[in-house]
Give the backbone structure.
Amino acid sequence: MNKFTVSALALAVSGMFNVAYAADEPPTMSVEKKASAAKIYFERCAGCHGILRKGATGKNLEPDNTHKLGQNRLEKIISYGTEGGMVNFDDILSKDDISMMATYIQQTPDVPPEFGMKDMLASWKVMVKPEDRPKKPMNKINLKNVFSVTLRDTGEVALIDGDTKQIWGIVKTGYAVHISRLSASGRYVYVIGRDGKLDLIDLWFEKPTIVAEIKVGIEARSVETSKFKGYEDKYAIAGSYWPPQYAIMDGLTLKPLKIVSTRGMTVDGEYHPEPRVASIVATEDKPEWVVNVKETGMIRLVDYSDLKNLKETTIESAKFLHDGGWDSTKRYFLVAANASNKVAVVDTKTGKLAALVDTKAKPHPGRGANFVHPKFGPVWATSHLGADVISLIGTDPAKHKQYAWKVVQELKNHGGGSLFVKTHPKSNHLWADAPLNPEKDLAESVTVYDIKNLDKPPVIINVAKMADLPESKATKRVVQAEYNADGTEVWYSIWAGKTEPSAIVVLDDKTLKMKAVIKDPKLITPTGKFNVYNTQRDIY
Ligand code: DHE
C-alpha cells in the first residue's frame, strides 16, 4: 500500500470519528504552546496557506474550516500529506508537534504588525560603502561559474566554485534564503530570507563578502535587480509576503527608496487583505519589472525610470500567481497561477496578457525550461505539484501560431509533487524532480527526457542513492536542477533532515553519469542553487 492510500484510508477512518469532535468548541492552548506553534507555522506552513490563513497554494485554514475537520483529521493530514500537494510532515515534526499544530490552526489567526519605511531604515546597514569596495576582482575564482547555494535551515548561503567544486565561502544570511538573484553586471548576489532579510554579497573580495543588508518585511520570497541598459546594478526590488508589498532599493547600498502596497481587489473584484508578492523578473529591453501578486492574480508591470512618479500597468490574469520564467526570446513571461491550474502569459512588449493556458493540477515550473520541440517549435515546460505530468506550451506566435499558448504535449513524470524542471540551450535533456512526492523513492529520483526524441522512454535516476549518504528515516528529497555556466553539468541538492548529512550531486548532462558529490559537514539542508552566469542572463 503506498502512502497516498494509507493517508486516504487514515483520513476516511479519522473522518468517521470527527463528527462529534467537530461539534465541540475549538480546543484551547497555552500561551507558550501557541508561541511555539506560531514559530513552526511561520517556518513550515505560512508560505502555502498565508499568514492570515486565507489559502493559496495550500487550503484555507481559517477556524471555520479547520474546526469542521477536527483535531484527529487535521493530525492525519499534517502527518501524511494529501494528493493535492500537501507535504507529509511525519518525518519532519514529532507526534506532539503535529498534534500542537492541529490545535493551533483551529485558533483565530493573529495579525502581524505592518513594516514601513521607518522599520526598513532602522534595519538597514552598509558594511562596506561602494567607494571602499575593490576596483577589480581580488580573487582568482571563475566568478561566472560560482553557485550561490541556499543552506535552508542554518540561515546561510554557500558560494561554491563550480570549477573545483570547493566551497569558496559561507555567509550568514536571513533564515531559509529563498532565492539568489544576480546584478546585471554579475558582480553582486542578492539573497532574500524567508524572514524578509535581504543581503547583498560582493563577489569581488578575496572571499564572498556581505556589503549591505536590510529587512524588507516580516516574510518574503523574491528579489530582483534592474537589468535595462543604463540601469545595470542601479536598483533592487524585493517582494514581501507580509506585509503584502514590494520595496525598491538602491542596488549598491540597499537604501530603501520606495514601498508600494499590493493590497486590493482580486480578479474577481473582491478585496483581499494579504495579496503576497510572488515572483519578480526584470525585463531586459525596458526599465521594467514584472511583479506577480499571488492572491489577487494581478500582474504589475512596474516602470522604474521615475520612482517619484511611478507608473504601473496592472494586468488581470488568474489568482494564486507563484513562480515563472521567460520564453526563449525574453519577450513573454510565463507565470504559474498554481491553485487555479493555469499558466498566465504576459507580453512585455505590448504590456498585455497574451493568454491564460489551462494545465494540470498546480503547475510549478521554477523558472521553467525552454527548448525547440522537433514538431511544435519553441516550447516552455512546467511540471506540477498535483500531477505526474510535464506540460509543454508552445511559445512562438510568429512562426508556430497554431501551437502558441497551447499545451502541445504532456510528458509523464515519475511522480507528482514536482517543483522544478530545467534545461540549457546547449543541452539535449530536460530534467524534472518530484521532491514533495510522499513516496520516498520518487522524492529521491528525477526523470530525464531526450528533447530531440520525446517518444523515447525517459530515464529515471535515483540521485539520492548516488550521494551514498547514511540510511535514515527522513526522505532525502532531490531538489532543483541547476546547470553550470557552460551547460555541461547538472547540479542537484539532496535535501535531507536538518541533523543529517546532505550533499550536492553533480551529473554529466551528456552521459547522465555521476561526476562528483559535494559533501561537507557545513552543507546543511542545501535547496536552491543559482549559477552566477545562468541567473544573471536568465538562461533556462
Ligand atoms: Fe519556493 C522560487 C515561494 C516552498 C525552493 N518560491 C519561489 C518563488 C516563490 C516561492 C514566490 C519565485 C521567486 C522568484 O522567481 O522571484 N516557495 C514559495 C512558497 O510560498 C512555498 C510554496 C512555501 C514556503 O513556505 O516557502 C515555497 N520553495 C519552497 C520550498 O519548500 C523549497 C523547495 C525549499 C526552500 O528552500 O524553501 C523552495 N523556491 C525554491 C527555489 C526557488 C523558489 C529553489 C527558485 C527556483 C528558480 O529556479 O528560480
